[in-house]
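ARCHIVE CARD
CATEGORY: sequence design from structure
SOURCE FIELD: tokenized fold
FIELD CONTENT:
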């Protein structure tokens, strides 16, 4: 089958130098939230770049506020699956071709990554599409239920949530264990909370941001710590599984 979705973009106020990020595409259920940063995660961003497994390449055009992006997946291309995108009704060409044997029958799920942006989805619930789409494509919401695949369900209640706290000296291997444990238990969908995990996600074009902070390591640590504190506050309100991987800093109570 050929499936489709539409995404409308709107910017939110921000005082950051590069405040707005939108990346849309498709990922396996087992992938992290960082679209385009690992295998089987395929994104197209507002800078006019496509990315998978942290490899960024030029694709299509830049897009921004009030643009509408259609995400298309064609499963009727023989032994390959083709992913392409449209901007305001204009087809931008095939972005990815993936052999079906590589997917191994696993489903691709719509995926969006945003920063300081509001987005509106159209999975087929609107009476009219934002823009016309190529013939033969079906909106996800219009697919028969029997042809859909449910994503992994999270804990139903706070009582079912699991929290693991790593304990040990610095460089003892806590982060390595946490990453391996999360990978070995994909159904748990662990969220690893720690400054190491945050800084690993602080990338620009797939490269670690730390390179841009030479001589200002304290600034990076401060930003990551503030982010971690906020994430812990949010985590307390969510029904998810967590691994707390954070070393107590010297001098802290």
């Amino acid at each position: 089958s050929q499936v489709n979705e539409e995404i409308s973009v709107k910017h939110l106020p921000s005082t950051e130098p590069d405040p707005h990020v939108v990346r849309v595409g498709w990922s396996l259920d087992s992938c992290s939230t960082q679209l385009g940063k690992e295998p089987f995660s395929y994104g197209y961003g507002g800078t006019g770049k496509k990315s998978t497994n942290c490899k960024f390449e030029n694709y299509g055009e830049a897009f921004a506020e009030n643009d509408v992006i259609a995400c298309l997946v064609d499963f009727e291309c023989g032994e390959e699956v083709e992913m392409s995108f449209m901007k305001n009704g204009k087809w931008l060409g095939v972005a990815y071709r993936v052999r079906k044997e590589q997917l191994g029958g696993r489903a691709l799920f719509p995926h969006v990554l945003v920063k300081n942006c509001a987005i509106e989805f159209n999975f087929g619930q609107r009476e009219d599409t934002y823009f016309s789409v190529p013939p033969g494509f079906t909106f996800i919401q219009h697919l028969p239920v029997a042809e859909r695949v449910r994503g992994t369900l999270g804990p139903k209640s706070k009582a079912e949530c699991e929290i693991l706290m790593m304990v040990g000296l610095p460089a003892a291997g806590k982060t390595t264990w946490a990453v391996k444990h999360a990978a070995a238990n994909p159904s748990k969908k662990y969220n690893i909370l720690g400054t190491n995990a945050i800084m690993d996600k602080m990338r620009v074009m797939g490269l670690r941001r730390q390179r841009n902070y030479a001589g200002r390591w304290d600034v990076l640590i401060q930003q990551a710590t503030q982010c971690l504190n906020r994430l812990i506050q949010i985590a307390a309100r969510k029904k998810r599984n967590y691994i707390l991987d954070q070393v107590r800093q010297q001098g802290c109570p």
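CARD ANNOTATION: The domain at 2-147 is CATH 2.60.120.920 (Jelly Rolls). The first helix runs from residue 100 to 103.
SHELF: design records, drawer C
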